[in-house]
Amino acid sequence: MNYKLLFVLLLAGCASAQKAVTPEDFAKTITAQDLKNHLTIIAGAEMEGRNTPSPGLEKAADYISGQFKNFGLKAGNNGSFRQTYSLYKDSAAEMKLTINGKDFQAYSDFAPFFLNKDDLNQHFDEFAFVGYGIVDDRRNDYDGIDVKNKLVVFLNGSPKNYTTALSGRLSPAFISNKIKTAMEKGAAAIMVITEKLPARVNSRSTYRPQISGAAGRTGMNAPIYYVNENVVSAVSGENLQTVISAVDNGNAPLGIQKNNVTIRQRTVQSQASASNIIGVVEGSDKKDEYVIVTAHYDHVGKDAEGNIYYGADDDGSGTVAVIEMAEAFAKAKKAGKGPRRTVIFMTVSGEEKGLWGSEYYATNPVYPLAKTSANLNIDMIGRIGEEYLGKSDAENYVYIIGDDKLSTDLNPITDMVNNKFTKLKLDRRYNGDDPERFYYRSDHYNFARNGVPAIFYFNGVHADYHKPTDTVDKINFNLLAKRAQLVFHTAWEMANREEMVKRDMKLPVGVR
Ligand SMILES: [Zn+2]
To answer: 274: CA distance to ligand 1 center in Å?
Structure first.
């Protein structure tokens, strides 16, 4: 080869090396400082904890859509950045429990587990007491008791020496599972005896969407009430501890008991709304295929005393990561390096109430789910979780959840981009059969159960989880930036690779 020509070629090589644009150039625009600037606003006092629905949530929605617009994203929902859904609230105009002629007071003697939307007028002349109401492979508290069309009464919790191989939400003694058992056996109404009634604010007499089969309400048709010692002693003449001991010792009179019980409830309905915020960076040759990046921008609002739950980590961190990723992809597109597939950036609302926003989107998808290659969902990536406190890799890890499900592509893509770019410790301990059921507890699940392969990014829980102390000053912004860059690189790879992520695995049948 001609030496002179080689020299020219080398020069040309240098010039193009300087000009070559890599995903890293755009990943680098996701900075700790930018994330902090956004989060200071999103998790600021002005947003009042971003309850769904609330004026604070609307302010956050305006801020996010304003950012998307500034970056040059396309409005994601037919010309609008908002996908809005209706919410309904049933307020009890009247709630009455009468047993053997004695009236009991709502919220001092009894309280609804959640408020049924229908008016109720039920009368029973007997109820079925089933102890703790637990059914598992060694124990059947319903043994010999036919509860069909009856009022079923059981104690909250489990007996002192109760053991089960299934922990947390999988336990047959977990309240939702006990309720489900009673429903399956045909209960017409359920009363759970408890030492302490839930507070009125937690009684779920709050807004909810009308989505068919909305999360948490599926098949829950019988009214459910908590009742406390006031009711127990009026009916049995015993105090609650005596009743509990009798059940624990096997001396309690279980089964059908004659008592006149009337449950009356009249409700009035009011309406509100909340939105998902959707912006897109349109793809090129594969623009009719999609990658969707999500985080929930709502949190739990304020408590009765007015304390703000800032939700800086949950999920302000995911929200600002989505904002920064949207900006990075928009910059790439402006530099002529736009994605081949369309990348959808969506912050959803109502997550804390029961994954409402993502359920609404999954039920009313703006972009076909069959053409949505994958969902990358971020919920809490700004902190060091309790399992990593004091560990040497505390500032360099993230939990990867769900890359073992639905697609065999998720895991190698994640490892590939991480080895190449971010070099985080990827902790997959919550994959497989996780008793905490994290896979089923954030927004990606609404994509997964509709067949869209999903990865969930998470830092684990910590002492400030769902407390007013989940604040901006406790966020580790360098770590947040690094984790956001991992999601960015994963989205970049999924948006630009030749094939959509393949769907070659079945979702295990899960309970939330
Ligand atoms: Zn969350």
So the answer is: 17
Ligand 1 centre distance from Cα of residue 316 (Å):
9
The 3-state DSSP class for residue 400 equals: strand
Domain boundaries, the chain: 21-87+271-496, 88-270
What would the DSSP string read from start to end of 295-352? EE-----B-TT--B---IIIIIIHHHHHHHHHHHHHHHHHTT---SEEEEEEEES-HH
336 C-alpha to ligand 1 centroid (Å): 35
Greater confidence (161 vs 420) lies with 420
Q: What percent of the chain has pLDDT over 70?
A: 91
Question: Length of the chain in residues, anyone?
Answer: 512
Residues whose CB falls within 8 Å of the CB of residue 476, separated by 6 or more in sequence, listed in order: 382, 383, 384, 395
Strands 224-227 and 110-112, by their bridges, are: antiparallel
Other CB atoms within a 10 A radius of the CB of residue 230 amount to: 16
- The CATH classification number of 21-87+271-496 equals 3.40.630.10
Residue 77 Cα to ligand 1 middle (Å): 24
pLDDT for res 256: 94
Residue 311 Cα to ligand 1 middle (Å): 8
Q: What residues have a C-beta under 5 A from ligand 1, the ion?
A: 314-315, 379
DSSP assigned state of 35: H
Tell me what ipTM this predicted complex has. 0.95
Closest C-alpha among 224, 225, 229 to residue 195: 229
> Which tokens go with 476?
């580790």
Q: What is the pLDDT of residue 509?
A: 67
- pLDDT recorded at residue 17: 45
**Beta-carbon-side half-sphere exposure of residue 347 (alpha carbons within 13 Å):** 32
**Where does the pLDDT of residue 261 fall: very low under 50, low under 70, confident under 90, or very high at 90 and above?**
very high
Q: Which residues 6+ apart lie within 8 Å of 309 measured at CB?
A: 49, 299, 300, 301, 302, 303, 466, 467, 468, 470
What is the rounded average pLDDT of the residues 97-123?
88
CATH architecture of structural domain 88-270: 3-Layer(bba) Sandwich (3.50)
368-384 pLDDT, tens digit per residue, is: 999 999 999 999 999 99
Short-list 388, 509, 495, CA closest to 445: 509
b (16+ CB within 10 A) / e for 25-64: ebbebbebebbbebbebbbbeebbbbbbbbebbbbbbebb
* Mean pLDDT, rounded, for 256-260: 94
Candidates 473, 294, 279, 477; CA nearest to 379 is 294
Residue 92, both tokens: 């009890």
CA of 355 to the centre of ligand 1 (A): 10
User: Rounded to the nearest whole angstrom, what is the distance from the C-alpha of residue 91 to the centroid of ligand 1?
Assistant: 27
Residue 351 has pLDDT above 60, yes or no: yes
How many whole angstroms from 471 Cα to the centroid of ligand 1? 14
